[in-house]
Amino acid sequence: MTATVEKAPTAGSRGSQPPVPEGATTITVKIRRFNPETDTEPCWESFDVPALPTDRVLNLLHYVKWYLDGTLTFRRSCAHGICGSDAMRINGVNRLACKVLVKDLLAGAGKHTTITVEPIKGLPVHKDLLVDMEPFFEAYRAVKPFLITSGNEPTRERIQSAADRERFDDTTKCILCAACTTSCPVFWSEQRYFGPAAIVNAHRFIFDSRDEGAEERLDILNDVDGVWRCRTTFNCTDACPRGIQVTKAIQEVKRALLFRRV
Amino acid sequence: MTEIERHAFDVVVIGAGGAGLRAAIEARSRGMRTAVVCKSLFGKAHTVMAEGGIAAAMGNVNPNDGWQVHFRDTMRGGKFLNNWRMAELHAKEAPERVWELETYGALFDRTKDGRISQRNFGGHEYPRLAHVGDRTGLELIRTLQQQIVALQQRDFQEFGDYEAGLRVFGECTVTDLLVESGRVAGAFGYWRESGRFLLFEAPSVVLATGGIGKSYKVTSNSWEYTGDGHALALRAGAALINMEFVQFHPTGMVWPPSVKGILVTESVRGDGGVLRNSEGRRFMFDYIPEVFKEKYADNETEADRWYDDPDHNRRPPELLPRDEVARAINAEVKAGRGSPHGGVFLDIASRLPGEEIQRRLPSMYHQFRELADVDITREPMEVGPTCHYVMGGVEVDPDSAASGVPGLFAAGEVAGGMHGSNRLGGNSLSDLLVFGRRAGMGAASYVESIGQDRPTPVESEVDNAARWALAPFGERGPDGPPENPYTLQMELQQVMNDLVGIIRRSDEMEQALKKLDDLGRRVRNVMVEGHRQYNPGWHLALDLRNMVLVSECVARSALERTESRGGHTRDDFPQMDPEWRHQLLACELEHSESGESRADRMDGVRVLRRPQPAMRPDLLALFELAELTKFYLAEELAEHPSEKG
Questions:
Q1: What's the N-to-C CA distance of chain B in angstroms?
Q2: Beta carbons within 10 angstroms of residue B400's beta carbon
Q3: Is this complex's ipTM strictly greater than 0.90?
Q4: Per its UniProt record, what Pfam families does this chain match (chain A) (predicted)?
Q5: Domains located in chain B, CATH noted
Q6: Alpha-carbon distance B549 to B523, whole Å?
Q7: Which pLDDT tens digit goes with each residue over B18-59?
Q8: Chain A closest-CA separation from residue B96 CA (Å)
Q9: Is B322 a catalytic residue?
Q10: Closest chain A C-alpha to B263 CA, distance in angstroms
Q11: Which of A83, A150, A216 to mutate to test the interface with B (most CBs of B within 10 A)?
């Protein structure tokens, strides 16, 4: 259970390690690290961590932070897949660390397990697993992600049928974790592309029966950096921790553009 | 001293959950230049975790509902310790706030005729919770976030600057409020990313920082819940009330260990789920307290009929208020009738068709399938109590959300009074919107009222705040062995969980106070490695000071209140005592004469008794006298119409 890269113990940096729970196996967590104050390039650092099959990758990262290296930096908040703070590349694919179980990553019988964890790709890395989310939110804001209506505000709710409401239900599940956008090869090579998440959030309003801003949003997405950049690789759909049919939503927006009909 | 980035605003809102965002929208719409400061990324607030819905007596599903019924339910749920004026405003204004949210664009599940659908929940007489599946909190935050983006784009069109009226400072922590001659003068904080300091010069601050649950080991709360706003208010000179009342949600996950404490929404019970012990018995029938006997069914047949015919049957006891259900589960486990992993069984599988479960409770279905390998459409869930919410908070004026410190306002979980000794499910999201708006109004009116007479932060106070924030880097050196922040946090969580938890005893709480005293000393010796740029150890070191201070408030108040009521259960005083109903416990920091820096205050909590103002007679008259006599002293009921004849 020692860190592969040994450092001199610093005052107060480490806690005494808790007893290893029954049924735990030692696995190696290999983390892509970067400290802007000291490093010029990111580098890999490995930690051996006792893990239960029911642990999640987030638990392993917490173990490293609490007991092995208190400077390990990553975002997390609700810890069960609702807030969308802890998207990262786990064994090469975008996942939320709080939703990936160790048992699904274990190597075959008798083999040692190594799990690699990297920051999501295509956004500037601030430190370790923490990236600058601003470009992502900028694309989100650009699609006018709010209800656009004309006329007087009603005093009670607007009426919406169950069928109309169902039409955009899927795209309201988005938690803005960026897992889709940063799994997209088009986004990796061209960060001006709005990316799947922004299109999903445009879809959410374009297909809302109460909204009157569809034309505006479709014009925005008709841009060179808009939906036409999508190459339907389905990475985004696979990456979405909420199970949103992202590629399908993008296709629906493309179709709406072609036929100007929602 | 260190370089400090300075900003001037009219209103600074700390916290970007439901209350904070609603307050900011209100302040901005009243012409205030407004800042929202939050520890997380914008849009990730704890509010997103609320699952069940927003309680509002719109009467869309049962037209018999109205604000009076909602008011009554809220007071009953809080065991009549609630600030009745807050409960009144809340019940009256919640429907407008939900409709308003809908006009902002929020998605809701709909009734057949296209109106907002409402679901049953514990303690609510009628289906009252507006909801979208089991992701209502997420939709609420997303909608308010969208509204803020809309306002910023409007400002851009008008002034050429997105942030002309409203600016969000994400991943930014406020460590201190600056008070000048007793009035708010600003706030001091740092960027989490760079570690650089910020000074907000502002005559008003709205606290909307949420709760304190991270002081407990088993909790449904996220890392932000370190009692920052509670501690900031105390140190600024405001009082906290009702801190002994901590809500343990009856149904948290108990297995596997890595997810212990994560919430299982009350909607599972609202939609028909029942609780069983290891013998398969629906044990809640054994735990209906005297005060609720008229409203809750005492047999399974009647309870099951209620789902289809609520007008002629009493409600199932699984839908009792949360404190009752949590205590019952605790008792069953103690009596040896628990589930294999120390909880009880929550069964929806035998109650609804699988498809219906997946449609109504999709998040729960996925949560259990992915994290516990349990298919809730086939098997029961294992659940047990988890620390969920603090009823206690900043003592505020009900109408304006103003604290005792001029310029300081509080709304949402950080404010106290609204929920009395126990909050009903669904009343939190509505609380955020109703009092978030009122806090925004309150702050705006205050700023207008003081005109040009704005206090300026004193530079020496700013220097003190900076020095205190940097202490964990050890420039001054500790007075004892250096401490690790992560270790201290775990020790604190264990102390609160074991000694000031769901069932309390005086000797254990005395012990807790000793340990908290010791932890308080050790927190001053926390040393962190690394530098200021995004340093999680340093961030925790600063949060820990707040956690220890606020935990002391909980323990001291809990020791003082020698009765059991709502979210405060004493093994040594198991009864509810009417003598305590009209008494509030307020925590304040003793004023130090030594000129010690305000930022440095971590101890010296004193608990004072405050009388609860008597309820307005017209509100009192909404209850039957027979019910009130279970809670009130005879002399307090002289104003009731049936007493006056």
A1: 71
A2: 16
A3: yes
A4: Fer2_3, Fer4_10
A5: 4-49+134-246+389-457 (3.50.50.60), 253-386 (3.90.700.10)
A6: 11
A7: 999 999 999 999 999 999 999 999 999 999 999 889 999 999
A8: 7
A9: yes
A10: 9
A11: A83
